[in-house]
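Predicting structure from sequence has reshaped protein science. With that in mind, we have picked out one protein's residues alongside their backbone shape tokens:
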Amino acid sequence: MKRRTRARELALQFLYQVDIRGREVKDELDTFLRAEEADRTASEFAATLVRGALEHRDEIDDHIRAVAQNWEISRMAVIDRNVLRLATFELLFRDDIPPKVSINEAIELGKRFSTANSGGFINGVLDKVKDRSKSRPAPPAVVDPLVAPEHGD
């Protein structure tokens, strides 16, 4: 399995825990990642995704609400809601990930961990988020320390 795919799985699992147990669990991220993943690159990318999704959660949820017609976020399946949050974070704040990759990875997560209908639902919502975000000025990107240039490069 590719490192980034594995990282997204870990991020989804942790966001699910936060959604179920509450935000105080976010302090357990490093312990969770150490227990679940030996590959440092995958763990660091997962941590970047989780922290970004949590930091921007209100804005992310606003984007999802704006395009998910007739769906309240609180009424969505927990897995679907967190797959959408994770992918919306990537779409809005990660210029280093092509939108198509974020959407395809999210669809696969939905199919793998949620219901048979999740892939289509996730695809529809994220396509609208992507289209809507193109018409807005880009927010500041989150810098991934693993790919950021060093000073003096």
The chain has one domain: 3-134.
